[in-house]
Amino acid sequence: MEKDSDQLAETTCNMEQQTNQQERDPESNSLHRPLLKRNLTLSSSPLALVGTKVSYIESLDYEYMMGFFFMTGVNFMLTLGATLLVVFLAPTAAGPGIPEIKAYLNGVDTPNMYGAMPMFVKIIGSIGAVAAGLDLGKEGPLVHIGACIASLLGQGGPDNYRIRWRCIRYFNNDRDRRDIITCGASSGVCAAFRSPVGGVLFALEEVATWWRSALLWRTFFSTAVVVVVLRAFMEYCKAGDCGLFGQGGLIMFDVSGVSVRYHVVDLIPVTVIGIIGGVLGSLYNHLLHKVLRLYNLINDKGKFAKIMLSLAVSLFTSACLYGLPFLASCTPCDPSLVDSECPSTGRMGNFKQFNCPKGHYNDLATLLLTTNDDAVRNIFSTNTPSEYRVFSLVIFFLLYCILGLFTFGIAVPSGLFLPIILIGSAYGRLLGMAMGPYTTIDQGLYAVLGAASLMAGSMRMTVSLCVIFLELTNNLLLLPITMLVLLISKSVGDCFNPSIYEIILDLKGLPFLEAHPEPWMRNITVGELADVKPPVVTLCGIEKVSNIVDVLRNTSHNAFAVVDNQVVPAVGQVSEVHGLVLRAHLLLVLKKKWFLQERRRTEEWEVREKFTWVDVAERWGTIEDVAVTKEEMEMYVDLHPLTNTTPYTVVETMSVAKALVQFRQVGLRHMLILPKYHGPTVPPVVGILTRQDLRAHNILSAFPHLERSHASKKGR
């Protein structure tokens, strides 16, 4: 009996030791296995028969559910706040704002884009959207914010509280206002990436249409001021009084701690990364185009539809970010560390323990349950060949491909830079892991090259991206292979579709003029283009008020040709093209009541008494805002002082290709078409060209045979 009791006691002791060993051994712990392979139900787990284990499992499930609801609720409220601001206060603050800036600098009027309210909504909305964990970046909105600040400084403040100082009138012309907005956009890029030279090159390569030497040093000065101020704030915040603002320095994703060595064999995977970036970038543009067209249909249904779409994306994002890490296995921390504790910076750094036991981390949670900037730092990390598993990186790549497509386009301020960097860095690191011993390039550097390739494949930028990535990563030795990757990705992407910003411009209906005309534009003249347009509307130099009101009410043109009819004794009546008068100036005349009792020319002193340079530079609303009496309708207006007497003109026999080049290079809004022959029966003005008339899509809609003939020539 005593022997049996001793054996039973020994067996019980061994079972307890095995149980304790299983609890201590992470390899045998169920928490080390993915959630789908675990069995935590009370009826089937032998550990659940013990009362303490029942309490542990119930509390575990309760904590996870409460964590999910808390995270989802906070993200939901942040997204709701950002969406309400955009929908009700400033609809133009949605999206990145870069396509609209690009269109404005190309000569397109984009109203309500650079005021105080869009800037306020952009700032607060970006904070809410990024904090909500949505797959979007702050870089695009920062470019728009910089342009808004520059525009407000240039015009002396908001419309209702504008400062009328004489020194500000320098920026009231179109050219200098475009220049200061270009400086603001480059400053936004510098603030986003802490890349002063990259900001200058971004403005040169991507947003600016007209570039000159004076604009180069102005943008460089702007970005230099930004980086000095940014550095000063970082120095001030080093004491920890500013939260996370002062951490990290000017280099956001430093990879200079690894030696860059590559051989001729390494050019093969580098070329593959470039090709993959071009193909995936063009595919991303194609799919995003389809999604944005769908979102346009949803957003056209009203404000409620916009709000519900944003909230649905927020709920889906939160569910994916919280649920997918349960699929990953736990990874033991570096045993060389003290007590095998994973390094962590408060709640923000590597690594996330999540559902793993002490001394282990969840690599997928480390990538998903963090800020986008920290996720990029994690994937860019060097000398960490076993830090992330292939399964986790594949899940991360697929998830951010889906989130990137369905998040962009909702009614919140959003950027494209960081989502594309995350997607590209994921497949870049995967390729680096696949190469393994066949390459000398670190996996973190492969991630950098993957991010650069996808950005070039989607946005089709090269020089500015190269400099931005060098300033981001602080590793000049990456320059040769980065240049090669960017050139290959852009070339491959151009074979399939336009850049993502050109697609957005087309979806928004902004008439952006490309630098190079289509080949078939040489086969049509501007005179033929004018024939398919409605007849040109002209005004006399001294016009009746009723005629001006009638023209403004029945047309939507922004400029009108001014023609004087004179009688020459030997010839008879001849017509003289005096110039071009703007719609805004006609509204100015009507609002100022600058009417004449008889038909006569005005003196210069009369004009100076009535109008100032501020009046001429202002916009004067619409014709519906003007009240004109019946007596005033019979009076006259002298349009000569307000007419541009030196407009740009072309002969009706000039090809559309030449006219487009001149129109774009000079930065025109209107171009007069004059007849080749003059005579009493020949009208003095054949037509007026605008940028809408020179768009390829509009020309082909009027002359469809041009596209067919060009396609047949290419087929032969």
From TrEMBL:
Cell membrane is among the record's keywords: no
Membrane topology: Multi-pass membrane protein
Residue intervals passing through the bilayer: 68-93, 113-134, 210-230, 268-287, 307-328, 390-423, 476-493
Main localisation: membrane
Biased amino acid composition, Polar residues: 8-21
InterPro entries assigned to the protein according to its UniProt record, in alphabetical order: CBS_dom, CBS_dom_sf, Cl-channel/antiporter, Cl-channel_core, Cl_channel_pln, ClC
Residues covered by region (Disordered): 1-31
Domain CBS residues, every copy: 643-707
Pfam families: Voltage_CLC
Cellular compartments per GO CC: chloride channel complex; plant-type vacuole membrane
Compartment(s) where it occurs, according to its Swiss-Prot or TrEMBL record: Membrane
PROSITE patterns noted in UniProt: CBS
Keyword tags: CBS domain, Chloride, Chloride channel, Ion channel, Ion transport, Membrane, Repeat, Transmembrane, Transmembrane helix, Transport, Voltage-gated channel
GO molecular function: nitrate:proton symporter activity; voltage-gated chloride channel activity
Family: Belongs to the chloride channel (TC 2.A.49) family.
Protein name: Chloride channel protein
Source organism of this protein record: Cynara cardunculus var. scolymus (Globe artichoke)
Phylogenetic classification of the source organism: Eukaryota, Viridiplantae, Streptophyta, Embryophyta, Tracheophyta
